[in-house]
Amino acid sequence: MRPTDPKKLKRKKGSGGRKDTRADGRVKTVVFAPMLEKKSAKGARVRSLDAPERTPQARLDEVVGLAAAIDLDVRASGLVPVPQPKPATLFGSGKVEELAGVVRVEDAELVIVDHPLTPVQQRNLETAWNAKVLDRTGLILEIFGERARTREGRLQVELAHLVYQKSRLVRSWTHLERQRGGFGFLGGPGETQIETDRRLLGERIDNLRKELVQVRRTRALHRKSRQRVPYPAAALVGYTNAGKSTLFNTLTGADVLAQDILFATLDPTIRALSLPNGSKAVLSDTVGFISDLPTTLVAAFRATLEEVQEADLILHVRDISDPASASQRADVNAVLAALGINAEAEPDRLLEVWNKADLLDPIAREHAENEAKRYGAILASAISGFGLDTLLAEIEGRLNSRRQTVEIAVQPQEGALSNWIYENCEVIVRSDLGDGVTSLRIRVAPEKRDTLARMAGAARLQTAAE
Hints:
By secondary structure, this protein is α/β, with parallel strands linked by helices. It has helices spanning 56-69, 93-106, 119-129, 136-147, 151-165, 198-228, 244-252, 295-300, 302-309, 325-338, 362-375, 388-401, 415-424, 446-456; strands at residues 28-39, 45-48, 73-82, 110-113, 132-135, 233-238, 269-274, 280-285, 313-319, 350-355, 378-379, 404-410, 426-434, 437-444, 462-463. Helix 13 runs antiparallel to helix 14.
């Protein structure tokens, strides 16, 4: 751990006599990433860090990136070995005092611990370090609170925040709340709803859940409306900052916020997607996932993530230039599993897009291309356009593989049948046969095939080649 020398700042008296250590509204922060150890089956000690291939340093870099996502001024960061977690403070007493020295040197008023903390541990560490403490869950909630823009997004974040906060209302965190505009823990629009009275807090949580039930109903109506438009649906998922929004913008021509920061996108966006041979689909961009994503967030964002559950095709976007890409894949699949989506059991429904190929050197790119072919993935770059034609063709092929192409001649008096076809099927070609008779070549989803057969008569449906 190599803390930087503190800058000379003009300081004012803050809450409780604490000096104000902010420059331009930024909070001086230190980040500690505990490295817990556990015993293997044979008794040897092994590191228990994260999914395979993620190094301790990569984990630390990620949490520092999370802090930077809400413009915290990270003054020092380091890995902290924890041979035996302590119930009271997580770290041993000697280590707590050592880390307190770092906090004092940096005049830090916020400490981020990249590990779940119990309320007791959090309170004791705050007392020992004389600073506010956030664990990984609290930090992610803070970022989500700052990123959410729509009413739906803010409802979901507030619910997750209050459920998390409910067990932690045993002390006051006012020294930052009065000085920084954020969401929840660091102050801002949500802080007035964090009541110390548990009855009021419970009532607010109940009201939020009721509002989100209505959100789910509204989303269900929107999906039902889209289902009447005869286009299949695809959804982008992936680890945060994998390039989903950039890919979404490139494929659809949308202008969703796409920045090189974690959790740039929280609120889902849906746009039409034109495919190479004239087919159309709808594509949705969703919130990014992350390792140890708080369960409260998964539950709160269930209404949003239903877009993924209902999608005909799920595009798992991976940053193939990241050394931790394999472990990130495992993290995303774990969240999908929590939503009832088994990546291994539904291989035709999931397509991996290995994004950011432009960041690979020629040798690494050639290796990635070979590996992508081996695993049935698509290597691409949303920035350079590399591989996007192949990606669109694969999307079209997979979406249409379940949809049967048929031809039917519709008589002039069959207005109801014609309307149903246009509302529920994709019309590929329309030809006039004379005397008011129209020949339609259409794609029909399996779940609508029987309805069409009943309305028109199965004998009239002629299977057609693409």
